[in-house]
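Posting for a labmate who doesn't have an account.
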Amino acid sequence: MSDEEPLIPPEEAAKVGTVVARRTGVVNVKEFQRWAASVKDRNPLYFDAEYARAHGYRDVIAPPMYLQHVTLGVADLDELRPDGTSGQGNGNLSFPRAPRRMAGGEDNVFYAPVYDGDVITSERRIHAIEEKRGRSGRFVLVTWKTTYTNQRDELVGEQTFSMIARP
């Protein structure tokens, strides 16, 4: 970069590699069916057990994108930060010289179906915190990696999520 003050405080940079959230939740068929209906995804694999069995599943399965909702917590509106997030699941990172935040991207990989009654554990780790320079100036790019395992400790999915913080 240059002689400008870094956007990443040393105490935040030291958090790379740390687990910032570990949560467990139980998959509920009515909840994932309501979720699927709310996003207008009427795939019969999520609603019709006979259809799901005919396609190699033991029962209806949860929509893959529902996986991240199984372990989400709940935050009161008055507890949200100015950027509209709780910050709890991300390690409460603070970048005083880069307070404006926006999503930077998301990549999901699904390895196994998720069924009613499965107990899902998510573990989110800070993967990287980097200062970068783009066309509109300097910014901080933070990347988290989350793993999702079931009650048999089988990896059912992974998510890589990034956030951009700007001055």
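Reply:
Got it, the structure tokens are right above this. The helical segments are 10-13, 29-38, 44-47, 49-54, 67-70.
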